[in-house]
Amino acid sequence: MSKMTMSQKILASHAGLSEVCAGQLIEADLDLVLGNDITSPVAIREMTKFKSDAVFDKDKIALVPDHFVPNKDIKSAENCKCVREFAKKNNITNYFEVGQMGIEHALLPESGLTLPGNVIIGADSHTCTYGALGAFSTGIGSTDMAAGMATGKAWFKVPSAIKFNIVGKPSKWVSGKDVILHIIGMIGVDGALYKSMEFVGEGIKNLSMDDRFTIANMAIEAGGKNGIFPVDEIAIEYLKEHAPGKEYKIFEADEDAEYDEEYTIDLSTLKSTVAFPHLPENTHTFDDITDTKIDQVVIGSCTNGRLNDLRCAAEILSGRHVAEGMRCIVIPGTQKIYLQAMQEGLLKTFIEAGAIVSTPTCGPCLGGYMGILASGEKCVSTTNRNFVGRMGAIDSEIYLASPAVAAASAVTGKISEPAELGL
Amino acid sequence: MKAAKGTVFKYGDNVDTDVIIPARYLAISDAKELASHCMEDIDKDFVSNVKEGDIIVADKNFGCGSSREHAPLVIKTAGVSCVIAKSFARIFYRNAINIGLPIIECVEAAENIKAGDTVSIDFDSGVITDETTGKTFQGQAFPEFMQKIIDSEGLINYINNK
Ligand code: SF4
């Protein structure tokens, strides 16, 4: 009898094996291979080294220029041109031009391209996001992407797993971001190195799909190979809306699956959590955060640029104004989210509050453009990495937080939770 | 490459891909030009001091962060012959193998080797020798499958030769 985790079962099914065990090296069939405007050009150059440079399946490759798009300079324009021409030459179905594009990890689930039971590799570390829909998805580099595009296969070392048993219900301003920051603070930035993070338990019904995307997205920030959720009614509802008519297979962990470690996370006890510079594990709650003046707030990214995130920020910013001297930058994750935010009046709320709203892009998240920090500046950001120099000058500082904390901080001008506004 | 020998540059825990090669340079596609910014945010003298064959020794979780293959590539292009660390972030580990940058996990070597030491590595046996102190350490050898990729000098050649 097998004793496999959810991730192991998906991998076994794609390797044509009835069983796999942790540590085993396998070759798995791929359902989707992803690249962006930074990693794809490198992969496309590598492709030319193959005996044949044809792609394995034009429908199973997604190319999403999002990092420096709309192009910030000539070099980024050349990179995007390279991707565009490759997509055209190979007739790639899922190439997303400016106007259709969004941040890859917000865009692909929304476009119905990431399904339960899939094996997905992406030349972007946050490819682990799709585990929120019960897929095995993981980040790889450009050479793996090239090999994946050419052969439709990738090699994996089958991971062991850590189980997170989620219970309880979070309070009003606590969201997926607080859950994952809490977990990273607890286990560290290499706490799940090479491993799957499997999130289960009755409490997940209290987490929206957007919360789950945020949690799975940051599995890599704990060193994880992937993060994954079971497919429940909430996920099925999401799939009905975003992937109507598509077939998929739901995998569940064996009851006696073996885990390296198990943790229980009680959502009802979690508080708003902030990761201080320069590591995501450097977490604090407002019990020990003293007055810290900030210069900029960023609300967006593949972690927190979805509709619920914008709704939450708008609820706080509504009828309020960003502090004097503060820059508040809001970046909807995709064109669809942008449009919905417009229809719901959220963009009006942001603009009236003194924030700016950008077209979908990674932008400042990786220090690209649209909000780079000067020397000594401090930023509260809903993104996922606060490494040295990530958003600009090497002595600038990033404080990672939820959309609620980011919006409240924009109003007060210092790191704040909504309670400080009487909310 | 079956062996390496060089002078050691030493770093701590969690050396991330943003300091190995900051995103502000990622639009550059020329490997040499990219490599001129290698490690610049944690060690601005690295590029001017590194010589062909030198070795990086670091603590845990080396290469954490993004999937950018530019990270192992700039290290290799800068002339580094091997990275020894207590542990590697998994995407960096894969990428290094796939592009043919030798890397070895060895906790004891990372704890004992000092900056500036001369170190040699025998990749077949996984033995790391600190020639300055005379100490030797047993690094973890690669599984056979990965060794084949390294011997083919990268994943693409490996697939082509299959
Ligand atoms: S939003 Fe940030 S973390 Fe997400 S894909 Fe873009 S650069 Fe990477």
Short description:
The complex is a heterodimer of chains A (423) and B (162). Chain A is an alpha/beta fold and 423 residues long.
Question: Could you characterize what this model shows?
Answer:
The complex is a heterodimer of chains A (423) and B (162). Chain A is of the alpha/beta class. Chain A has helices at 6-14, 40-47, 74-89, 104-110, 142-151, 176-187, 209-217, 233-242, 301-304, 307-317, 335-343, 346-352, 403-412; strands at residues 25-29, 32-36, 61-64, 94-95, 119-122, 136-139, 153-157, 161-167, 196-200, 226-228, 261-266, 273-275, 283-285, 296-299, 327-330, 356-357, 378-381, 397-400. In chain A, the strands form five sheets. A five-stranded parallel sheet of chain A has the order 4-3-2-5-6. Chain A has a five-stranded parallel sheet with strand order 16-15-14-17-18, with helices on one face. A four-stranded parallel sheet of chain A has the order 10-9-8-11, with helices on one face. Chain B has helices at residues 17-20, 31-35, 46-49, 70-77, 90-99, 107-112, 144-151, 155-161, and strands spanning 3-10, 55-58, 82-85, 103-105, 118-122, 127-130, 136-138. In chain B, strand 2, helix 4 (70-77) and strand 3 form a beta-alpha-beta unit. The mean pLDDT of chain B is 93. The interface between A and B is large, with 51 and 39 residues. The structure holds iron/sulfur cluster (SF4). The site of iron/sulfur cluster has 13 residues of chain A, from helix 4 and helix 9.
